[in-house]
Amino acid sequence: MLITCPYCGPRDVIEFTYQGDGNRQRPQPASQNLDAWNAYVYDRLNPAGDHNEIWQHSGGCRAHLRVVRNTITHEILSTEFARGGHKTESRS
Amino acid sequence: MAEQHLPERQSPLEPEYHPGSHGNFEHGVDVILSEMRPGTILQLAAWPGEEKQLIEIIGEVTGLALPDGAGGGVSSGARAAFGFAPGKFTVVDEAEGLAQAFAGAITPAVGTLTDLSHGRTAIRIAGPKAEWVMAKFFAIDFALPAFPLGAGRSTNHHDVFAQIQRTGADQFDIYVFRSFARSFWKALCHASEEVGYEVQ
Ligand SMILES: [Zn+2]
Fold it and tell me: What is the DSSP letter of B135?
């Protein structure tokens, strides 16, 4: 499985660390809404198909990435920086 | 100018550093390995939006025209610089003291400066089989069109993080953690045996 890092280009999955479901909405740290915290910690869509995920290129540039992966085929449909702050020209 | 008293650096490779020809070299040496021992290795990081400003500062302080874009880099004589992550750059100088030159130039509004001169070990691999040996270590494309002259790459070998800069058509400079350097060096020597290697 190859993931195309927007900075480094296509790299083997072994260079990346999965950082969890990209659909989670973290409540404000001061929030006392227990339902919102419960949903953040436990609720997952677990789709058979396209899935929003957060990965880190931990064995490369160490950027956090927003990845859409198909959970059936493992096809990577898109990758982008999780934080859009750095406007670096992609090599891929 | 005040006299500087800098600690003398010991090479972490020393017990395993054996100058001369090794391995299968009867038909010639196809790879030359050496420790570069630059005086300065710096990591510079720009806050989001300040990347171009930092590239300009690197140019002013070092005289290197660092190209913008992912993994862009340049090396000329004693100095080298390359991008290794979004907004982050490695800058190397043969001489010590480059950190002081940057200290006044990089303001807190632009970014940060970390002096890694004692924390990284720089190893150079050169020769007609350099690409071949590197390809056994790292799962990236070392062909010249994919990895142009001066460019930098961040990757790793068995969890040993490595920054690689191409400083010649058949030459790469590898920066590894000092604490892993000897083990990495031994592995690199083993991998070079089949092509015949010389340690300089
Ligand atoms: Zn990357």
Answer: H
pLDDT tens-digit profile of B95-108?
A: 999 999 998 899 99
CB contact (8 A) between residue B156 and residue A88: no
pLDDT at B107: 93
Show residues of chain A in contact with B83, CB under 8 Å.
88
Structural domain total, chain B:
2
B161 touches chain A (CB under 8 A): yes
Q: How far apart are the first and last CA of chain B?
A: 35
Q: Which amino acid would we find at residue B180?
A: F
**B148 Cβ neighbours under 8 A, 6+ residues apart:** B166
Fold (topology level) of A2-25+35-89: Folate-binding fold (3.30.2270)
Least confident range of B6-20, B111-125, B143-157, B162-176: B6-20
Burial of residue A14 (number of CB atoms within 10 Å: 0-12, 13-18, 19+): exposed
Q: What distance in Å separates the CA atoms of residue B72 and residue B90, rounded to the nearest whole number?
A: 11
**Complex ipTM, two decimals?**
0.89
* Phi then psi dihedrals of residue B62, to 5 deg: -100, -20
On whether both B88 and B179 belong to a single domain, the answer is: no
CA dihedral sign of residues A54, A59, A63, A69 = negative
Q: Which two tokens stand for residue A49?
A: 């198909």
Number of inter-chain CB pairs under 8 A, A vs B:
59
Which token pair is A69? 């992966």
Closest Cα in chain A, distance from residue B141 (Å) = 10
C-alpha to C-alpha distance for B45 and B62, rounded to whole angstroms: 16
pLDDT tens per residue, range A24-83: 989 999 999 999 999 999 999 999 999 999 999 999 999 999 999 999 999 999 999 998
